[in-house]
Amino acid sequence: MQTRFGHIQFNVQPAHLPFYKDLLTFLGWPVIFEGEGFVGMGGPADDSLWFGGHVKPVSNDYDGPGMNHIGLAAASQADVDAVVAYLAERGVPTLFETPRHRPEFSRGPEDTYYQVMFESPDRILWEVVYTGPK
Q1: Are 44 and 81 found together in one domain?
Q2: Which pairs from 36-44 meet CB under 8 Å and 24+ separation?
Q3: Do 52 and 8 fall into the same domain?
Q4: Do residue 71 and residue 125 come from a single domain?
Q5: Are residues 18 and 54 both part of a single domain?
Q6: What confidence tens digit (pLDDT) does each residue in 10-30 have?
Q7: What is the pLDDT of residues 33-76, one digit of tens each?
Q8: Closest CA to 111 of 96, 98, 97, 130
Q9: Does 67 lie in the same domain as 128?
Q10: How many independent structural domains does the chain possess?
């Protein structure tokens, strides 16, 4: 058997749907579905991220059981820096002293792992990362 990534659905506050649509559009993911309280964003293959505005009144704890964060791969360090600028323009703080290089996660001394991490309005932890030649 061979499987591949298909999709992830996030349950979010309805008022936050524009945040996800704008962020993913900026990151190059087109809208593939938009309906009442729901938006689907298409990835570079046949993958997708879905955001549904139907949630119970509880908060997400990314250090608890379940998913810690979602990481999206960038094509260059400049792309990571562009995300940092995008976030700053919208008042979204970066987390964990990012952006920064993480040599402990790189494939070797000639490569880098350059990341920015941030939290969405629904406390979903995101990472945009470039891995490759310095």
Answers
A1: no
A2: none
A3: yes
A4: yes
A5: yes
A6: 999 999 999 999 999 999 999
A7: 999 999 999 998 889 999 998 888 888 788 888 889 999 999 99
A8: 130
A9: yes
A10: 2
User: How far is 128 from 116, CA to CA, in rounded Å?
Assistant: 6
For residue 21, give its domain range. Answer: 1-58
| Residue 91 φ/ψ region, left for φ over 0, alpha for ψ in the -120 to 50 degree band, beta for the rest | left
Query: Is 49 found in the same domain as 86?
Result: no
Output 88 or 1, whichever has higher pLDDT: 88
72-130 pLDDT tens trace: 999 999 999 999 999 999 999 999 999 999 999 999 999 999 999 999 999 999 999 99
Angle between helices 17-26 and 77-89 in degrees, nearest 10:
150
Amino acid at 34: E
Bridge partners of 40, per DSSP, are 33, 50
| Helix intervals (H) in the chain | 17-26, 77-89
